[in-house]
Amino acid sequence: MTDASLSKSHCPTRVEFGRQVWTRVAEIVQENNWSKVLLLTDPGLKGSRLHRSLVSSLESLGIELEEFDGIDPEPTDKNVVSALRVSSALSPHALVVLGGGSAIDVAKAVAIVATNGGEISDYEGIDTFDVPPLPLIAIPTTAGTGSEVSGAAVITDTLRNSKMAIRHAHYGPATYAILDPEAISTTPQHVAIHSGIDAFVHAFESYLSKLANPFTDAQNLHAIRLISDNLRPYVANRENQDAAFNMLCASSMAAMSFGTTGTGNVHCMAMALGSKYPIPHGLANAVCLPHVAEFNFIATPQRFAILAATMGIDTRGLSTLDAGRKAITAIKELCDDLNVPPRLRDVGVEKKDLPEISEKCFLLNYNRWNPRWTTEKDFLTLLQKAY
Predict the structure, then answer these.
(1) Calpha distance 334→331 (Å, rounded)
(2) Bridge-partner residues for 156, per DSSP?
(3) Predicted confidence band at 7 (pLDDT cuts at 50, 70, 90)?
(4) Single pTM value for the model
(5) Distance between CA 54 and CA 117 in Å, rounded?
(6) What phi-psi label fits residue 348: left (phi over 0), alpha (psi between -120 and 50 degrees) or beta?
(7) Are 296 and 370 in contact (CB under 8 A)?
(8) DSSP 71-127
(9) Residue-range domains of the chain with CATH
């Protein structure tokens, strides 16, 4: 854990949550006197009941509304450029986004460039802009990325074939987050699995981070408890409103925390793999998670012991080491129950590319946050074990 004098906790997003809370969107627009709104939507949600209802509620206010849905599953700078064309023609007062992490990241990128100018690649890194973005209302339709409250947006730079992380703890998160279980009731099963594991990894890695603090610990442990109890039933039945609601809350809690603490080797490896292969981010996380958990265990066995108890494992009478190892077993069982592919080869990774990917991993410098120092050779060993 970092020195207490350097610890912090910050979430500028106003979070509203509950059933039918999506109806608040039109009220928020009206309260702020926003007369021109750009709506960004995941293409698969265009024409859905929730999309139609949202459009109708905004149009009933006489709002000048334009829509954009040209968003790839792994968002690119080209998606941002296309959305900015629509935004420039409208000059909106605010953005509304209905979608998963990809759509929300594109919306955040558009909001940044619309007020700061230039291209989204100009803002790669941490705190690289200082003009507030356009106001953004985010309605997540997956329970996983937590992009609605996180300070980060991840966009693929198609020229460099690499993923850019644009981070700003204050200006990065959406202005409003609308957490409604109805919005994730039609999530395809494979997306529910990948995004749910992604949320777990956010909480898991944030809890183990070198920068963890009492505030982030509280959020992360409760997120882990909620995910451990609700991810399986949510995947089994996305219309389980209680499980869906708890997954949405857990996802946002974890994202509020990792904006402060950073993540770790799971995300580092997923970022490097995603820049080489079209693997969904959550799936890459899921495949790497058990291997990284085993690697990081010796750095902080006490925290692993707490994780085991949080995940519902009876650790009474066990030593710290034995209790901590139970967390690794519980993680493997979670992945098995959700039919996560066990190996990188199962998701299309080729063995010949592992040295290049390990080099990328090391250069990403997640050693800032990961509890165990990891060399390029360590990354190669991890990738080979995962392969």
Answers:
(1) 5
(2) 76, 163
(3) low
(4) 0.91
(5) 29
(6) left
(7) yes
(8) --SS-BHHHHHHHHHHHHHH--SEEEEEESHHHHHHHHHHHHHHHH-S-GGGG-EES
(9) 4-184 (3.40.50.1970), 189-386 (1.20.1090.10)
* Residues 289 and 265: beta-carbon distance below 8 Å: no
DSSP state at residue 133: P
Three-state SS for 174?
coil
Greatest Cα pair distance, the chain, in angstroms, is 66
Six token digits for residue 266: 């799971």
Question: 37 and 96 in contact (C-beta within 8 Å)?
Answer: yes
Residue with tokens 């979430």, as numbered in its chain = 11
Render 192-220 in DSSP notation, one character per residue: HHHHHHHHHHHHHHHHHSTT--HHHHHHH
User: Which has the closest alpha carbon to 127: 90, 152, 157, 155?
Assistant: 152
Those residues with Cβ within 8 angstroms of residue 40's Cβ, 6 or more apart along the chain or in another chain: 67, 68, 69, 71, 83, 95, 96, 97, 98, 99, 103, 106, 107, 110
Least confident of 92-96, 156-160, 284-288, 377-381: 156-160
Q: Is it the case that residue 4 has pLDDT exceeding 70?
A: no
What is the number of alpha carbons within 13 Å of residue 194 lying toward its C-beta? 17
